[in-house]
Amino acid sequence: MKKIVVFTGAGISAESGISTFRDANGLWENHDIMDVASIEGWNRNPKLVLDFYNARRKQLHNVSPNFAHQYLKDLESNYDVTIITQNVDDLHERVGSSQVIHLHGELRKACSEKDKTLVTDWHYDIHYGDLATDGEQLRPFIVWFGEMVPLMDQAIEETLKADIFLVIGTSLQVYPAASLVDFVPEHAQIILIDPKASEMDLKNKIRIINKSATEGVKELNLLA
Fold this sequence. Notes:
Blueprint: E1 3-8, H1 10-14, E2 27-28, E3 31-32, H2 33-36, H3 39-44, H4 46-59, H5 67-74, E4 80-85, H6 91-95, E5 100-102, E6 105-112, E7 119-121, E8 138-142, H7 152-159, E9 164-168, E10 189-193, E11 206-209, H8 213-216
Parallel strand pairs: 1-4, 1-9, 4-5, 9-10, 10-11
Antiparallel strand pairs: 2-3, 6-7, 6-8
């Protein structure tokens, strides 16, 4: 059975109504990214950061997986599929994908401010003063700028096994995640689906589909 590794970004979730991480104006939901997505921002104003992610978590109740999420789930009928995602939503899991690696964390989990290995499922607001089991402040289980990406090695291991490496809805600008494309085996096919793909500095061997996630997957013909 061939191995497909799928690398997804904000573009696939945007079609479900989730705001993209980096808008054209450099803001995320009208906030400076470094205020709400960096360890420095957390240290400066944890209440702002908690409120921001509480709102993102609530938004998950109002969105659903789209055709592209379902397509990737359906690939499991014919392929060994691992999804590596930059997204912190749970849309891949909700549609039933069985192997998902969240490089940048998960909205529906929380962890200790001091020990990110103390993780718990969390579906509600996190308030300032809510404590983890070690007595420290609970925080969103999100990998912010200025922090290590703990699952990067696991993502690289999966990428090294790929026969097909499928990139959907990411600008390949956020590192170290974007470097995964450098670990794709020489024999593997690389396919990029993104409406702005023609503007990116890409390897010559990448097949480009300049369409949205839901429209682009229809051109793959991988389910046949």
